[in-house]
Amino acid sequence: MRAGKRPGSASGFTYVVMLFALAVFSIGLAALGQTWGQRSQRDKEEELMMIGAAYARAIGLYYQHSPGSQKRFPGSLADLLADSRFVGTERYLRKLYPDPVTGTAQWGLVQAPEGGISGVYSLSEKATLRRRTTALAGTAIKGERYADWKFIYVPRPADTVPAPKGAADGR
Question: Nearest 5°: phi and psi at 153?
Fold first, then answer.
């Protein structure tokens, strides 16, 4: 027996305390990682909503600024960068923004009934954190997947000009 040690003393106590501290530290890091991941996803959701609204607004401006009485939607997203239908070039977006959720430049395109693109959506099938319906740029954003969030420009009905008297009965 060595001097200074009593029989039955708690040898290995420091080892058990260190294991317990390591377990508590690991649980704390796991919780921090999960919170950080959710925060990152929320930031991407906010960015998706801002970029989606910018695309819907740009599509609306393209549609509203169509020359003549025949309004039309852009044929591609590149048309929003440089609209050459005028003598001068109109620009509705500075650049084509990537989808913040997927990280790619590829967007899903919503086709307008009369041709062209009326909106965009993310191609991500990932579940959203936001579950409630949000009104954004005249469109309701809802769904449980990012691909369900459609950022669409919906033209308002044109103000109708009253018909001249007698036009309704064919005179």
Answer: -90, 125
Q: Which amino acid is at 168?
A: A
- Looking at 26-138, which runs of residues are DSSP E strands? 108-111, 117-121, 134-136
Single-letter residue type at 61: L
CA distance 155 to 137: 12
With contact defined as beta carbons under 8 Å apart, do 66 and 84 qualify? no
CB atoms within 10 A of CB 108: 15
Instruction: Name, in order, each residue with C-beta under 8 angstroms of 38's C-beta and a sequence gap of 6 or more.
Output: 129
Question: 112: phi > 0 → left, psi -120 to 50 → alpha, else beta; which?
Answer: beta
Residues in the chain: 171
Alpha-carbon gap, residue 95 to 169, rounded angstroms: 52
Total Cβ atoms within 10 A of residue 131: 9
Q: Provide block-wise average pLDDT over 10 residues at a time, the chain (171 residues).
A: 58 82 82 76 90 93 88 93 84 94 93 93 88 68 86 72 44 41
Using an 8 Å Cβ cutoff, are 92 and 63 in contact? no
In degrees, to the nearest 5, what angle opens at C-alpha 30 toward C-alphas 25 and 35?
Answer: 125
pLDDT of residue 137: 60
> Is 107 within 8 Å of 122 (Cβ atoms)?
yes
